[in-house]
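tl;dr need the bound structure. longer version: we got a ligand (magnesium ion) that a collaborator sent over and nobodys looked at where it sits. i said id run it. heres the input, straight from their email, havent touched it
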Amino acid sequence: MAGKPILETKALHKRFGDHHVLRGIDFTVEPGERVAIIGGSGSGKSTFLRCLNFMETLSEGEVWLDGTRIGVERKGTVTYPEKQLCQVRERLGMVFQQFNLFPHMSVLDNVMEGLVTVKRMSRPEARRVAEAELAKVGLSEKHDAWPGRLSGGQQQRVAIARALSMQPEILLFDEPTSSLDPELVGEVLRVIKQLAEEGRTMLLVTHELGFAYHFATKVIFLAHGVFHEVGTPDEVLKNPRQARTQDFLRRFGEFAF
Amino acid sequence: MDYAWDFGPVLGRFDMLALGLLNTVKIAAVSIVLGVLVGLVLAMMRLSSRRWLNVPALVFIEFYRNTPPIVHFFWFFYALPVMLAISLNPYVAAVLALSTQSGAFYAEVFRGGIVSIERGQWEGGRALGMTHSALMRRIIIPQAIARMVPPFIERSFELLKTTALASTLAYADLLYQAMMVNAETFRPLEVYTTIALMYLVLLVTASQLARLAENRLTAYQ
Ligand SMILES: Nc1ncnc2c1ncn2[C@@H]1O[C@H](COP(=O)(O)OP(=O)(O)OP(=O)(O)O)[C@@H](O)[C@H]1O
Ligand SMILES: [Mg+2]
């Protein structure tokens, strides 16, 4: 794939105080790519994903979206105006481990919220879009339910519908199945697989290595703040070249591809 | 005990007690409204990251939490007029004392409600592209209000009971009126029993109304 990157990071660093979590990451995503990010607990996978839509502020480095650098540079210092960050976040949908649905709104209102508040769509129009997105994740009968009354798998599917409603160019998933009971993982992975078949550009942080193998076009092993090994699923998950990747995969034991 | 109960004289002056009850309700209602305004301002100052807003609000709140309510009544009635070379009537002084007191406590109720909302709620809204103010308005404040209701009601009940201190400034609230009726009738047992029951009815009625409001605001939980 030799297209124009839609998302790019250059020498991205992130520190929390003295803790240097990301140590210079250069990364590109092209339209239609599906990237799985794996790595040990605390290695900075979530932090990396969260830097892309500025849930975390960068310590150093650049993020480029569709050929435009995010942030405004003036006299050597970069600022990030709220308005610009809001636009970036609108274009990068995010799905969280803990769903983060709004408990005081019905399922339908959760999915309509961004359309009405951010995209300034009329309520009837937003409703049509939201209903279509909920149908897509198989939750048409749950419109009027409170999110708190749904199973974890259903909640995560609502969260995916909410992210999709904004028509994002890229989807970011941060361990979308890690807080689900094992029997509910499948229904969420099926939805993600369906999105893959539509050719969407996606980044997925996951511990489900078997799923990552089938899902991804590119796999990244993150360790010690850098992309330690990058390649196709076969290269990274089946024939890793780096000793540290081999170690990591061994510790995960056998997983079925 | 061979005391001969006789509510006759007290009920004969029930108009005075009714006026007192009305004044108690009035001063409580006005002080709750003003207290909410004071509380909102203080809460916003406390939530600010700017020290020059944060620290004065903290000092104000701690002052009120650590001094007896009756001192505030005396300060506004006897001390403030000296400082400003004005005179305050008992009503104004009592409202000032009650609304600043309750404002200090409401501020902590409001702030507590806001900070109790999980980080994930902020992130869920932010990830959709919502601005800070939209997030506050649509996501954070509606949920925070539901959590503020029980402590808010509790504080308002405190305030309702504290209004009785206004009688020490000769404000014609229910307690003060009772003292007047007692002075006329020499029937302390009947007078103070009657007003205790009137306070009870007032507070029980208020708590029923509060419960209705609470159920509506916390329906989703
Ligand atoms: N807000 C924060 N303040 C301070 N340290 C943080 C913060 N967020 C993350 N960290 C630290 O940064 C490191 C990377 O965290 P991160 O959550 O990105 O790891 P992760 O790879 O996603 O791990 P996991 O698999 O457990 O989700 C950890 O050591 C974590 O403690
Ligand atoms: Mg993580």
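gonna send this back to them w/ a short note. Chain A has a mean pLDDT of 94.
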